[in-house]
Structures are given as structure tokens and as C-alpha cells.
Design goal:
The structure is a single chain. The radius of gyration is 17 Å and the shape is globular. The longest helix is centred in the C-terminal third of the chain and has 20 residues. It has a single domain, classed as Ribosomal Protein S7, CATH 1.10.455.10. It starts with a strand and ends with a helix. It is built from 8 helices and 4 strands. The protein is mainly alpha-helical. The strands form 2 sheets. The chain has a two-stranded antiparallel ribbon with strand order 1-2. A two-stranded antiparallel ribbon has the order 3-4.
Length: 199
Amino acid sequence: MSDIKLFNKWSYDGIKVVDEGLRRYVSLKPVIVPKTGSRVVGVQFHKSNLNIIERLVNKLMVVGHRAKKHKYTSGQNTGKSQNSMRLVEQAFTIIEQKTKQNPIQVFITALENAATREEIIAIEYGGARYPKAVECSPQRRIDIVLRIMTQSTYQKSVGSKKRAAESLADEIMHAYANSNQSAAVAKKIEMERQADSSR
């Protein structure tokens, strides 16, 4: 039994990663404040050792542009970790209120549900490019899910009455329910469909 709780609210006890392929890459090392200050930034594949909640916070700080639509991220992406941590804490509070479950477990299950197993690459034969289906590595599966979740969060909150915390909570809960309303789940279905047709 660990006394360390995320944001001094949510326990890590009993949190399980069911997907065998992702288990090694989802770190659930107990931390109160998910911030290491980039102390292992120079180590290859260091991301796997960071707490998964910290990876979500980091992604919210530098989410990247979706289809070059800078307006969705330029205003809210200040790079301040305090703002991103507050956003995650508020989103987890909403998830706990609506699902009556530990939001850490809800988030982990959402990651597993939305992690794509296949994607397509372009190969070139004699000047012509063809799509080819390839398996997605576990590290990349998590990277893609976090990116799409965070980009969707900002996209749905810009120019609407919905706050970013509410958008993030909705995205995680939809992915937890394996619903197409989740941008990450919808993207997974689309990528696997394209890969299936490219065999």
C-alpha cells in the first residue's frame, strides 16, 4: 500500500495495465506532482520511465499543430507546467464525479482502448508510391494516443463555451467507453481500416 497519491487525491493502488504490449511502456511509479524537470531528457527512450500522467501533462504543454491550424493551440499553449497540471487535475476531478471510479484507471483503460495496432507507410517502387500496412510499436502507440487526445482537447475548447478541462475529461471518458465520439478512438479505427485495405 502506497501513501503517495496523485495531487494528494488519487491512489495508485490497484491500477492495472491489461494490455501486455503496453505494460512496459506505461509507468505508474507513484508521484504526487507529475514533474521531473527533464532530468532524463538526454536518455534515449526515457519517456517510458516517466509517470504516464507526467507524459500527459508534457503533451498538453507542447501539443503540436493539427493540420497547421495554429489557432487551436497558440493561445492556450503557454508551456507552463502549472497550467497543464491544473487542467489535468480538473479533468480527473470531473471524471471521478461522473464515473465514480479512480480517474487514473479510467485514463489507463482509455489509453489501451485508443492505442492503434497498425498504421500505414508509403513505399516507393519505380517512382510510384504505394501504401503498406505495418505494425505500430508500443512506444509509438502511446505517443499517438496522447497527441490526438491533447490536440482534440484544445480544438474542441477553442471558440466554444466548453473549458479545456471538460474537453479533456470528455475525450478520456469517451475513449474509456470505446466510443467513436473520442477523437483518438475514431483515429485508431480509421488507421486500422486503411492498414487493412493496404495489405
